[in-house]
Write a structure and sequence with these properties.
Blueprint lengths: L8 E4 L1 E2 L6 E2 L1 E7 L4 E8 L7 E2 L15 E6 L5 E13 L6 E8 L7 E2 L8 E6 L4 E6 L2
Parallel strand pairs: 5-10, 6-9
Antiparallel strand pairs: 1-12, 2-3, 4-5, 4-8, 7-8, 8-9, 11-12
């Protein structure tokens, strides 16, 4: 039996100015206790958490070091220290915000990530690499 999947949004991959490469990513706004910050994040289906630069924490009203400390490991085997904090995420220019726990880095990072908790568990995602397209259906 065939399965039919429908998506309300189709999006082109984003363009990374630094490298000239295209990647599956989205514009996301992080809402903290006293402020908001907007960034572009890479979609990573293997990442447990959404992962953002810790330098954003103070602008959001978050004391970075007060969060639960976690060591995050990449698929390549490298590791980064991070701190977990609850924030609200807004993506796809939707008015809906998702309350979730994200990781903020303790050092500078090259890319910010939308992972399984807080992002992928709130959408249905389709990827067509050859066409460099994302297909998204937000859960209500």
């Amino acid at each position: 039996m065939a399965t039919t999947v429908t998506y309300s949004l189709s999006l082109n991959y984003m363009h990374e100015a630094r490298t000239g490469r295209r990647f599956p990513g989205l514009d996301v706004t992080i809402h903290g206790p006293v402020g908001s910050d907007r960034t572009i994040a890479h979609i990573d289906t293997g990442a447990e958490y959404c992962f953002f630069n810790g330098m954003r924490a103070s602008a959001l009203g978050i004391d970075l070091l007060s969060g639960e400390r976690k060591t995050l490991t990449s698929a390549a085997g490298g590791s980064t220290e991070a701190y977990l904090h609850e924030v609200e995420l807004e993506f796809l220019s939707l008015s809906k915000r998702v309350r979730t726990v994200v990781a903020f880095s303790s050092s500078s990072i090259q890319r910010e990530i939308l992972g399984r908790n807080g992002f992928l568990d709130n959408i249905q995602l389709g990827v067509r690499e050859k066409r460099q397209m994302l297909y998204v259906e937000p859960f209500s």
